[in-house]
Amino acid sequence: MGLTETWLHDSHLEAEIEIDDYTIFRSDRAIKKNKRRGRHSGGVAIYLRNDLASKTESLLSYSNGAVEIEAIHSKIEKLVVATLYRQPDDSTHGRPSGKTEFKAAIKALSRSIESLDYTPDIIVGGDFNLPHTSWPECAPKQGCPKEEREMIDLLQKFSNDFMLNQIILDPTHHQGNTLDLVLTNNDMMVHSQDIQPTTLSISDHYLVRLYTQYKAPNLPTQNEKSPRLSPFDDLNYHSKDVEWDEIITTLSDIDWNSIMANKTVDQMLEQIYKKSLEASTDNVPIRQDQSKKKISKQKRLRMNLARRRRRINKRYQRITSPVSKDKLYKELIQIEVKLQKLYQESDEYKEKKACEAIQENFKFFFSYAKKKRKIKSNVGPLQDESKNMVTDSIGMAELLADQYSSVFSTPQNQPPEINFQRNASESISDIKITPEDILAAIDELRPTAASGPNGYPAILLKKCS
């Protein structure tokens, strides 16, 4: 996902703008605003899926104050993706963006691609702000200014050098201009595209979508199911519908002395598990299978609106009547407003649910709060053998690698022989464990603590002790 005009600067942390399961590559505008008031401008960013980002590196992060480029390179996929933003020329107010600035940016991108030892698939997209260009010829229209004509010639030379074709031919701006371009040297890689109008409150540019041949992420099959390690795992002890009074009463009425009589320790534990499970079966809701979880009414409404938006957008691309186009555009805007409201209501509901769970299930609360934090926990600094603090990423990685390798041991083909002889005269007799000690240990448990190998829930111990 490529973004232009991000308006980001060095004080924006990546944790503030992260998207789950995506990694961001960004190039912020190098020149800061001169006045206290006003806003930062420019900047580009690329969000890449994590399964692809782990094998991808930044090839170029460029800004000259008028043009920004972020280019990433995947050697495994043999792919280069670049996002470019060129601001409109505003030399009158001291913000030039003409041939000189555009040429320097295109030259930097060309050198980056040429530095690779093979010819990759290339996708270059972004807001070029060249409204007087005729596509797909890449030729200046009648009345094109001289400065823009020269930039069109530079773009045409760049396209010829790397065998690029511009595949976006419809308007991408509400004034009817094609400003957002996508150039690629492999037309077969992009099997389709669509352009979706957006509300002016969001952007005066349209949303450009490309559909490529690159594989989707590896997802588990629908039939794949996590095995239950214990019968207790099938029950949801953290539900509000748990009848704790009934469970406590049932367990209290059991004659434990007669049940435990003449039993070994293992048999006693088995009886405790059996009776606890019997008391829980009718008083604890069954844990809901996430794969069969019902879709909420609000989510279903969002899905229907999104589906409706896709259908209208396809019709919008086909029809030519201005009246029909205007009608569909207004309907798209209404759908966009409804979707924004639904997402806002969903966020408010999740926040309220997390706040209500802060006492009984604080693990859920902190999991929600973690998603909203603006600062990520960093690794380091680390101390080396000379007690010097290491802060750079490569140095810390080497220190961790050395530490892990130092504790490795060489595997043996045969297990070592252990000659253990117990002295009958040796015994431990000074350890006393009282019921109070056991209750104190249970009291220290967290209700959300993971169960042990036997699967007995910690919350059941705490509630019934």
Short descriptors:
12 helices; three-stranded antiparallel sheet; 465 residues; six-stranded mixed sheet; alpha+beta; Deoxyribonuclease I, Chain A
Topology of this structure?
Layout: E1 2-4, E2 22-27, E3 44-49, H1 50-53, E4 56-63, E5 67-74, E6 79-86, H2 99-114, E7 121-127, E8 133-134, E9 139-140, H3 146-161, E10 165-166, E11 180-184, E12 190-196, E13 207-212, H4 244-252, H5 256-260, H6 265-281, H7 297-318, H8 322-356, H9 362-372, E14 382-383, E15 389-390, H10 393-406, H11 435-443, H12 458-464
Parallel strand pairs: 6-7
Antiparallel strand pairs: 1-3, 2-3, 4-5, 5-6, 7-11, 8-9, 10-11, 12-13, 14-15
Overview of the molecule:
- The strands form five sheets. The protein has a six-stranded mixed beta sheet with strand order 4-5-6-7-11-10, covered by helices on one side.
- The protein is α+β, with helices and mostly antiparallel strands and 465 residues long.
- Helix content is 35%, strand content 16%.
- Among the domains are: 2-212, 4-Layer Sandwich (Deoxyribonuclease I, Chain A); 294-372.
Outline:
The chain is built from twelve helices and 15 strands. It is α+β, with helices and mostly antiparallel strands.
Distance between the termini: 53 Å
Strand order of the largest sheet: 4-5-6-7-11-10
In round numbers, the mean pLDDT is: 83
Instruction: Give the strand tally.
Output: 15
Choose one word for the global shape. elongated
The count of helical stretches stands at 12
Decide which structural class fits the backbone.
alpha+beta
Taking all Cα atoms into account, the compactness measure Rg is 32 Å
Query: Which bin fits the share of residues in helices?
Result: 25-40%
**CATH architecture title of the domain at 2-212:** 4-Layer Sandwich
In terms of DSSP E residues, the strand content is: 15-25%
Order of helices and strands: EEEHEEEHEEEHEEEEHHHHHHEEHHH
Q: Low-confidence parts lasting 5 or more residues at pLDDT below 50?
A: none
Largest sheet: 6 strands, mixed
User: Class of the domain at 2-212, according to the CATH hierarchy?
Assistant: Alpha Beta
